[in-house]
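Slide 14.
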Amino acid sequence: MVLEDESSRLAEEICNEIFEKIDKKRLMQLVKENKEVYLLLHKETREFYNVYIGENNKDFGEFLAIPVPKRFVLLEPDEEYFEVALKANIAIGIKGEKDFHS
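Slide 15: predicted structure.
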């Protein structure tokens, strides 16, 4: 049985929106080529804004910076697990937590 809450449902919608704008394989390639990759979501509307590459040590103002997980790109390449981990990070970010999947 899968328990679904509001943040999980919203993470699913956001992930679908992201993959409409950037191909999953392209996002995975960005992770392979760069040390840190983040998705910027608007804090209020939760809409996907852009991909940010670089250190997450700055204030993104009205945006949440959600780290794109690396494990299922670099260590155990798998598109399905990558998508699941990405959705989990989005849900974690929406809840305001900081313990993201890497």
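Speaker note: The beta strands are 37-42, 48-53, 63-67.
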